């Protein structure tokens, strides 16, 4: 079954405590991306990756890091989380850069 | 922001009626896509329309695209209670390629 798996699904943390949200896909997709969803703002792209070792900034990259060392994984790293990073995060993949996106179930992050 | 906008923000209809929602965007595009999101879940792809297409159908869905007006509409015919969800349009940017831009969504409620 085609899947995009995010972990953790829910996380409450404190300001400054580094955390990683993992994303894994089993579809052999080239393109992977991260979004955050906030009320009234829709989905905003944080980072995306066209292939292994190739990453680019989206619209809201500040405070986030990513890496793409393997094709199937695209972790989102918050080195020093702040309360304004409290949000619902989605990983999404696509076979090619402008095609249909497949979304994970989301990771709800609260930073106190 | 290069984000699109959906209109209306919220729509409430009776089961069996048709639902129409609109999307406006700002840049030249390769494709426009529509997604559905059930409360807090991951987005699910509904339909993709290319910039050289004007209309596309998929089951009870009809999408139109007017690139001269930078707008699209999604029509759901014979709505069902199970269609209750938020609907988002997403565009790429022909100039920058691999970023996706989502609108702020239309919340559709179908009353049984």
Low-confidence blocks of residues of chain A: none
Percentage of residues in helical conformation of chain A: under 10%
Alpha plus pi helix count of chain B: 0
Largest sheet report of chain B: 6 strands, mixed
Terminal CA distance of chain A reads: 36 Å
Strand content of chain B: over 45%
Shape of chain B: globular
Structure summary, number of beta strands of chain B: 11
Structural class of chain A, please? mainly beta
Unreliable parts of chain B: none
Characterize the largest beta sheet of chain A: strand count, sense, and whether it forms a barrel.
7 strands, mixed
Mean pLDDT of chain B: 92
Mean pLDDT of chain A: 94
Helix content of chain B: under 10%
The N- and C-terminal alpha carbons of chain B lie at a distance of 38 Å
Order of helices and strands of chain B: EEEEEEEEEEE
- The dominant shape of chain A is globular
Oligomer: heterodimer
Q: Percent of residues of chain A in beta strands?
A: over 45%
Structure characterization notes:
Chain A has 112 residues and is mostly beta strands. Chain A has strands at 4-7, 10-13, 19-25, 31-38, 42-51, 54-57, 65-66, 76-78, 87-94, 102-103, 107-111. Helix content of chain A is 0%, strand content 51%. In chain A, strand 4 and strand 5 form a beta hairpin. The radius of gyration of chain A is 13 Å and the shape is globular. Chain B is mostly beta strands and 112 residues long. In chain B, a hairpin with a 6-residue loop joins strand 4 and strand 5. The A-B interface holds A 4, 31, 33, 35, 40-45, 48, 50, 56, 58-59, 88, 90, 92, 97-106, 108 and B 1-3, 30-31, 33, 35, 40-45, 48, 88, 90, 92, 97-105.
Give a concise summary.
The complex is a heterodimer of chains A (112) and B (112). Chain A has 112 residues and is mainly beta.
């Amino acid at each position: 079954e085609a899947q995009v798996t995010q972990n953790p699904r829910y996380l409450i943390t404190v300001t400054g405590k580094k955390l990683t949200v993992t994303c894994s896909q089993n579809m052999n997709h080239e393109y992977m991306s991260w979004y955050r969803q906030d009320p009234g703002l829709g989905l905003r792209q944080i980072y995306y990756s066209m292939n292994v070792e190739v990453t680019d900034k989206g619209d809201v990259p500040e405070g986030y890091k990513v890496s793409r060392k393997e094709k199937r994984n695209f972790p989102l790293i918050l080195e020093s989380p702040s309360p304004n990073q409290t949000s619902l995060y989605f990983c999404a993949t696509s076979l090619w850069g402008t095609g249909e996106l497949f979304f994970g179930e989301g990771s709800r992050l609260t930073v106190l | 922001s290069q984000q699109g906008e959906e209109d209306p923000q919220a729509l409430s209809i009776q089961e069996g009626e048709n639902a129409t929602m609109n999307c406006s965007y700002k840049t030249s595009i390769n494709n426009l896509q529509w997604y559905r999101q059930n409360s807090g879940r991951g987005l699910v792809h509904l339909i993709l329309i290319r910039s050289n297409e004007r209309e596309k159908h998929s089951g009870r869905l009809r999408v139109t695209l007017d690139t001269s007006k930078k707008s699209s509409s999604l029509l759901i015919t014979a709505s069902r209670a199970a269609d209750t969800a938020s609907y988002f349009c997403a565009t790429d940017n022909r100039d920058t390629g691999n970023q996706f831009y989502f609108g702020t969504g239309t919340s559709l409620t179908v009353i049984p």
